[in-house]
Amino acid sequence: MTNFPIYVVYVWKKDDSIDKLDLPIIAIGNPREILLLCQRILAPKSTITEFFQEYKSYAQKMGYDTHNLELLSFLKLLSKMKIIELYEVPKEIFSSDG
Asked: Which residue from 29, 26, 77 is spatially nearest to 51, judged by alpha carbons?
């Protein structure tokens, strides 16, 4: 059994080469891995700090509370903003209890 949460994430990325359709990128990982993936997809030329500040600023402009954001709460905020879809995988899936 894993001792950390595992998430499935859909990252919605605009692709200008295909008439601005959203292309979903699907991944499974822990919150840190998901955050790094989001940064690489959504802001590949930014550092992780720049990415965080940019999307925190977007959230503030949309009226979301951005105080005391931690890694997981930031991912959940991206989900509320409809930038990603985030689903926690139940730990029972990894159980050997059958």
From this structure: 77
Contact 64, 80 (CB under 8 A): yes
d(CA 15, CA 93): 34
* Domain boundaries, given as residue ranges, for the chain: 7-93
CA distance 10 to 63: 23
**Widest CA span in the chain:** 49
Write down the residue that tokens 């709460």 correspond to: 73
What is the per-residue pLDDT across 12-68, written as a single tens digit (0 to 9) for each?
A: 765 555 455 566 788 889 999 999 999 998 888 999 999 999 999 999 999 999 999
State pTM to two decimals.
0.79
